[in-house]
């Protein structure tokens, strides 16, 4: 059909299929890729454009229905005079992190402000109901919208910009403009000449024998280039596992390398073990053709019994997933002295026991995963573009352990990348598969997942059953803590599968408290669920939920104030370094101080009055505390090796000072929304005492001049990779000073580095050179001291002696409707200490994101499976409910800065550390609200129907 | 991506459209959201979409003879910005439960009736409480069906084959008061549970009452027995309570199995009592 329309005031005309959606027309025909595809079902809003001025999700409109319309996309917003005021306000207010949801949100806001020039906070949150954010949450977005309204009505006065851009300043984030204008290219936005498209077939059975696969009909479909199944990929090795705990027996799968154990193959061979296991792929000329053909592949399965629960899976006679793994047990591990804990429990005045289920979560990033692979026959070089958190490990693991190709033949590039929340920190079988297929078909091949595909193939997280016991004295002192846990890792081990259930949870369960006897025993178990992996807050979230619920129950059993019980047991400032008894040595802090601060801000002293007032309105009000201290800043390489991680975890940087004076820093970090381009430049600017604008950050490409990058995860970037940047800058200064000492003929001690210059102290007017002059002279290399090489560059590594331990206390205040049991979050207070903070705007953004995710876990998110078939039922963003703007209460952030001795910056992690206290604070608040009914515990997500079920027994329902 | 091949037709007159909609595999498209979502999941029996976008007049909203006439292709937003809406509080409040501007712009009243779906439940319930009627055109005639036709005991009743909805008509509000109440659900995975109510009173006596629950059944359901029991009486705390107690399986067959039935029945009772209390307060005062 012929389609004519205006896009950004430019006429377009095209012959199209009637089934083409507007989003696909915009992206594939008009090449306007600023409009993003997130869910395809009208839920997420990343595809929002304006059609005749109206906010429209372009995935929900046929292109033909836009005939004759005027469309505005994100690309049409900025003008020759600059960004649109909404774009500017988003930038100024740190409302952009990875930027995937930014274009769609901005487009909605443009219409809002046209209709309503002065929206209230509530108006904004309601209007944004259709735009999800899985990164920063909504707080900074709402602020940005308010400011945009002022800018559009000329009420905005530009604030005083601070002269300093150094550490401690909220410098506006860099490399953000392309995210605001839609110019940034994410994986789905990339094309290469001659590129073909892949679709991957996933098993609809959670456990079945593969009897036969018939691809003949698919092969005959229009546009099909090749169809691949397991018989084609025998030479491709299984995925490796790179975390093998040395202190316990573990059962992974075999791997031909003999060096590491293995996991699943790129295609299931004899049987499928989870609904989503992949078993064939089509490469075709277009994506539509690939998916059309995929639907024609016929597989004959023989269904087998399914097991989804870890405790069931351990029982004799349970369906067995892997012949080589008895009882489906990957491993059993114990931390702490179990016997001593038993003893302490038996001697305690008070003992509380509780089963807690930390539910299975889905990362559900709005950007799904994708891969573009290419093999150049002339150079024998492979290039892999993919949205991963870990490009260097991809290079190493794929070349060495999966494809068996030279490390030096593979380059991995990360384009602009959307949220990860941890799920993009794995190696998935689709990734080497696409690269391998590109070589087979002799053309670049791109695969971008679907939302249903993502729900079945992308790692999920948490999913641990915990049997807890807490014991102590009558006056509130905890004497023992025991956790017996069962972790459901799904059907196969991911690369670092043991990391989360073992040290990250096991060593973290004492939380912020001195607990003389603590133990943790876990069985890590295979089931027919999607493989599980870390998720933002990982391990620490399960541990902190556990301890913060247990201490709450303990306090209630004693009839003591839960805040006071925390105080009594908290690690005190004079106890650092503090060995928590299970393996972590806490670095620094004043835990009680933040507890008290949060309580004061929450008006804790007046809680009884608040409850009474709410009760008059038919509400039960509750206040919940979540105190935390969590491990961050992975980590000391030897310590991580001791845990079983077959990799170093040092930070690395390469600093290059060009003869022009420009500084290029290559970092081992892999940004995916944490703004390292900004914060690392601030560190370097402070260290080198030069303007930030002289500094460029490089990352996301393994061909950058860096030995290896250990990437970004577990809140390590700033405190480890950032410290390596600082160290590299110090090496530059050292060389500059040594060179100056030689040139000025002065002893080194008399050469000062100040304001970006080397200065001979005895003659500061004459003996002075800028860093740029030093770089130029060293580039000439005409006159060098003995033993000095030309050039001004440095490679630096930083391997911290210890982790760092951010901490704090969060408080949630909730109200529960006494008739409907709806839970309403009224207020949220977060008091955190992330050590020395480089950029408060950035860190606040990370914190809001962590809180939003925690709210989701507490109140709505859970992966649901069909108990019979093992299919993921929550396979879109309608059935899996991510927090939306209107759910969020006013959030108040407070911060103290206690430097960490673990790194010279004094920084602690911030990326995911403030997630763990959120869910327990909310569930504690809910249990507090229901204290008159003696509700000990409620598993997450806490829904009204769960509350009704529990309270039915406990109250006579009077309406 | 839509996996099935489609033909698209956009007739310019109602006559041409009627000629097409009676045919096998043809389906009307009013830009509404539910159909597009279904197409992505695959509707095997469908091969041709008949778009109404080029037929003039179907998006209009006007008042005629005291009746509010809403074109089948009129969007929720166009009604939201129409001054007549404040005569119909139940409908205004039901529309307010759909804050997403995209849904407001692209959900249509015709779509709500032809395709149904969760997001439309509040609006349909309000229309039912307001005794709307639906103008359905077939090749032979032009009938007005009461809106209640579309819900039989909470099940969706499809449009007569070959029929095309052109308009929804709301009778003059007269002295009727109405409301739509919902519960403030955080979790998006839940159906939009709510209740639409309208009533007329003479003094303290209820003349006529409509009670429609949304979100519990496939299509909003009218609580006929309770309506009959309450009509002609005056509301007291006791009669309100006993109305709620009547919400058994016969009166309310629960279709939504994602949430425990007992809770839903409880919630329905709460909504019913809140609705009755809220309106009687308004009318009595
Ligand atoms: C193998 C693997 C394991 C993972 N494990 C986990 C896990 O255990 N838990 C989890 O939740 N997620 C995990 N993820 C995902 C991870 O959470 C996110 O990638 C995380 O947000 C990374 O943050 P970061 O390392 O950049 O954090 P950080 O360095 O803490 O912070 C993010 C950004 O905030 C700024 N910032 C941080 N600290 C400061 C400071 N003190 N001063 C100023 N600015 C600061 C910097 O710009 C920094 O780049 C994992 C991923 C992988 C691949
Ligand atoms: S992609 Fe259109 S709403 Fe999510």
Automatic annotation (TrEMBL), chain A:
UniProt keyword Iron-sulfur, yes or no: yes
PROSITE patterns: 2FE2S_FER_1 (PS00197), 2FE2S_FER_2 (PS51085)
Domain 2Fe-2S ferredoxin-type: 1-77
One annotated GO molecular function: 2 iron, 2 sulfur cluster binding
Protein keywords: 2Fe-2S, Iron, Iron-sulfur, Metal-binding, Molybdenum, Oxidoreductase
Record Pfam families: Ald_Xan_dh_C, Fer2, Fer2_2, MoCoBD_1, MoCoBD_2
Stored InterPro entries: 2Fe-2S-bd, 2Fe-2S-bd_dom_sf, 2Fe-2S_ferredoxin-like_sf, 2Fe-2S_ferredoxin-type, 2Fe2S_fd_BS, Ald_Oxase/Xan_DH_a/b, Ald_Oxase/Xan_DH_a/b_sf, Ald_Oxase/xanthine_DH-like
Record family assignment: Belongs to the xanthine dehydrogenase family.
PANTHER family: ALDEHYDE OXIDASE 1-RELATED, XANTHINE DEHYDROGENASE
Annotated protein name in UniProt: Molybdopterin-dependent oxidoreductase
Organism of provenance: Spirosoma terrae
From TrEMBL, chain B:
Top-level taxon in the UniProt lineage: Bacteria
Statement: the UniProt record of this protein carries the keyword Flavoprotein: yes
Domain called FAD-binding PCMH-type: residue spans: 1-175
SUPFAM superfamilies: CO dehydrogenase flavoprotein C-terminal domain-like, FAD-binding/transporter-associated domain-like
Cited Gene3D superfamilies: 3.30.465.10, CO dehydrogenase flavoprotein, C-terminal domain
GO molecular function: FAD binding; oxidoreductase activity
PROSITE patterns assigned: FAD_PCMH
Keyword terms: FAD, Flavoprotein, Oxidoreductase
PANTHER family xref list: XANTHINE DEHYDROGENASE SUBUNIT C-RELATED
The name this protein goes by in its record: FAD-binding PCMH-type domain-containing protein
Originating species: Spirosoma terrae
Lineage: Bacteria, Pseudomonadati, Bacteroidota, Cytophagia, Cytophagales
């Amino acid at each position: 059909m012929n389609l004519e329309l205006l896009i950004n005031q430019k006429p377009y005309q095209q012959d199209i299929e009637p089934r083409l959606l507007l989003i696909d027309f915009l992206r594939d025909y008009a090449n306007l890729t600023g409009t993003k595809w997130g869910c395809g079902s009208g839920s997420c809003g990343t595809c929002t454009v304006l059609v005749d001025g109206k906010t429209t999700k372009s995935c929900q409109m046929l292109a033909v229905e836009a005939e004759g319309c005027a469309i505005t996309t994100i690309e049409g917003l900025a003008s020759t005079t600059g960004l649109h005021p909404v774009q500017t306000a988003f930038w100024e207010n740190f409302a952009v992190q990875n930027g995937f949801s930014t274009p769609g949100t901005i487009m909605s806001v443009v219409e809002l402000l046209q209709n309503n020039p002065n929206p209230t906070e509530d108006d904004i949150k309601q209007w944004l109901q259709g735009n999800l954010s899985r990164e920063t949450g909504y707080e900074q977005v709402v602020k940005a919208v308010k400011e945009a309204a002022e800018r559009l009505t000329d009420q905005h006065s530009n604030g005083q910009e601070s002269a300093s851009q150094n550490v401690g300043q909220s410098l506006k984030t860099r490399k953000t403009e392309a995210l605001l204008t839609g110019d940034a290219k994410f994986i789905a936005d990339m094309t290469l000449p001659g590129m073909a498209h892949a679709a991957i077939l996933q098993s609809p059975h959670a456990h079945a024998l593969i009897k036969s696969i018939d691809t003949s009909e698919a092969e005959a479909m229009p546009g099909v280039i090749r169809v691949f199944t397991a018989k084609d990929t025998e030479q491709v090795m299984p995925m490796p596992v790179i975390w093998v705990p040395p202190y316990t027996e573990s059962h992974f799968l075999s791997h031909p390398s003999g060096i590491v154990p293995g996991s699943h193959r790129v295609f299931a061979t004899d049987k499928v073990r989870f609904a989503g296991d992949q078993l064939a792929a089509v490469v075709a000329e277009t994506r539509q053709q690939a998916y059309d053909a995929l639907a024609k592949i016929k597989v004959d399965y023989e269904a087998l019994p399914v097991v989804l629960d870890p405790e069931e899976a351990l029982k004799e006679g349970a369906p067995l997933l892997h012949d080589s793994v008895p009882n489906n047990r990957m491993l059993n591990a114990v931390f702490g002295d179990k016997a001593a804990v038993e003893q302490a429990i038996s001697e305690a005045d008070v003992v509380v026991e509780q089963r807690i289920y930390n539910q299975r979560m889905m990362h559900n990033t709005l950007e799904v995963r994708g891969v573009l692979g290419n093999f150049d026959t002339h150079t024998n070089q492979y290039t892999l573009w993919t949205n991963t958190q870990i490009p260097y490990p991809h290079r190493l693991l794929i070349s060495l352990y999966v494809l068996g190709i030279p490390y030096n033949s593979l380059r991995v590039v990360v384009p602009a990348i959307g949220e990860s929340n941890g799920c993009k920190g794995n190696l998935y079988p689709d990734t080497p598969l696409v690269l391998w297929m590109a070589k087979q078909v002799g053309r670049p091949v791109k695969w971008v997942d679907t939302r249903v595909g993502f729900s079945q193939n992308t790692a999920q997280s948490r999913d641990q059953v915990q049997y807890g016991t807490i014991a102590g004295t009558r006056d509130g002192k905890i004497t023992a803590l025991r956790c017996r846990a069962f972790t459901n890792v799904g059907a196969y081990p991911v690369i670092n599968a043991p990391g989360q259930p073992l040290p990250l949870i096991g060593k973290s369960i004492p939380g912020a408290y001195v607990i003389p006897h603590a133990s943790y025993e876990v069985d890590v178990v295979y089931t027919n669920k999607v493989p599980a992996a870390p998720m933002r807050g990982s391990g620490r979230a399960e541990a902190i939920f556990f301890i913060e619920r247990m201490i709450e129950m303990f306090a209630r059993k004693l009839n003591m104030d839960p805040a006071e019980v925390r105080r009594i047991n908290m690690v005190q400032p004079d106890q650092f370094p503090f060995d928590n008894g299970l393996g972590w040595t806490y670095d620094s802090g004043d835990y009680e101080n933040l507890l008290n601060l949060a309580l004061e801000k929450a008006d804790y002293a007046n809680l009884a009055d608040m409850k009474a007032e709410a009760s008059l309105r038919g509400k039960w009000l509750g206040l919940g505390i979540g105190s935390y201290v969590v491990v961050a800043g992975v980590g000391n390489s030897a310590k991580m090796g001791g845990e079983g991680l077959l990799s170093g975890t040092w930070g690395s940087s390469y600093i290059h000072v060009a003869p022009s004076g420009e500084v290029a820093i290559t970092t081992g970090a892999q940004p995916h929304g944490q703004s390292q381009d900004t914060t690392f430049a601030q560190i370097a600017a402070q260290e080198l005492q030069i303007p930030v604008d002289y500094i460029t950050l490089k990352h996301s490409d393994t061909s950058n001049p860096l030995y290896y990058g250990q990437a970004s995860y577990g809140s390590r970037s700033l405190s480890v990779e950032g410290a390596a940047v600082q160290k590299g800058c110090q090496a530059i200064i050292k060389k500059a000073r040594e060179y100056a000492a030689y040139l000025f003929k002065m002893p080194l001690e008399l050469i000062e580095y100040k304001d970006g210059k080397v200065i001979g102290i005895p003659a500061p007017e004459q003996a002075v050179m800028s860093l740029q002059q030093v770089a130029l002279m060293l580039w000439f290399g005409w006159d060098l001291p003995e033993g000095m090489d030309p050039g001004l560059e440095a490679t630096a590594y930083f391997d911290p002696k210890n982790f760092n331990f951010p901490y704090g206390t969060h408080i949630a205040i909730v109200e529960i409707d006494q008739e409907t049991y709806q839970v309403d979050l009224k207020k949220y207070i977060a008091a955190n200490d992330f050590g020395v903070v480089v950029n408060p705007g950035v860190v606040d953004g990370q914190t809001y994101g962590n809180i939003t995710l925690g709210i989701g876990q507490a109140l709505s998110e859970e992966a649901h499976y069909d108990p019979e078939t093992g299919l993921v039922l929550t396979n879109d963003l309608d059935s899996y409910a991510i927090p939306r703007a209107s759910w969020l209460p006013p959030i108040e952030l407070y911060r103290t800065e206690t430097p960490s001795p673990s790194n010279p910056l004094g920084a602690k992690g911030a990326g995911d550390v403030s997630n763990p206290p959120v869910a327990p604070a909310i569930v504690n608040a809910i249990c507090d609200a229901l204290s008159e009914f003696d509700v000990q515990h409620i598993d997450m997500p806490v829904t009204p129907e769960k509350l009704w079920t529990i309270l039915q027994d406990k109250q006579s329902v009077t309406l | 991506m839509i996996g099935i091949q489609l033909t698209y037709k956009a007739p310019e007159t109602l006559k041409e459209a009627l000629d097409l909609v009676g045919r096998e595999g043809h389906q009307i498209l009013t830009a509404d959201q539910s159909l597009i979502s279904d197409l992505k999941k695959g509707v095997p029996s469908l091969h041709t979409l008949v778009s109404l976008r080029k037929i003039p007049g179907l998006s209009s909203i006007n008042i005629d003879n005291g009746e509010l006439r809403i074109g089948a292709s009129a969007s929720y937003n166009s009604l939201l910005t129409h001054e007549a809406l404040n005569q119909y509080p139940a409908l205004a409040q039901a529309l307010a439960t759909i804050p997403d501007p995209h849904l407001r712009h692209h959900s249509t009243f015709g779509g709500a009736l032809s395709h149904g779906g969760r997001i439309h439940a509040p609006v349909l319930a309000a229309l039912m409480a307001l005794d709307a009627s639906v103008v359905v055109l077939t090749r032979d005639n032009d009938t007005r069906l009461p809106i209640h036709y579309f819900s039989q005991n909470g099940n969706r009743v499809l449009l007569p084959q070959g029929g095309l909805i052109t308009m929804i008509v709301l009778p003059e509000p007269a002295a009727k008061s109405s409301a739509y109440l919902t519960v403030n659900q955080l979790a998006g995975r839940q159906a939009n549970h709510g209740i639409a109510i309208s009533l007329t009173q003479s003094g303290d006596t209820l003349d006529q009452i409509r009670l429609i629950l949304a979100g519990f059944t496939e299509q909003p359901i009218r609580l006929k027995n309770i309506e009959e029991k309450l009509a002609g009486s005056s509301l007291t705390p006791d009669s309100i309570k006993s109305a709620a107690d009547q919400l058994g399986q016969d009166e309310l067959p629960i279709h939504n199995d994602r949430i425990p039935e007992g809770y839903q029945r409880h919630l329905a009772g709460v909504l019913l009592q809140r609705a009755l209390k809220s309106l009687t307060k308004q009318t009595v005062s």
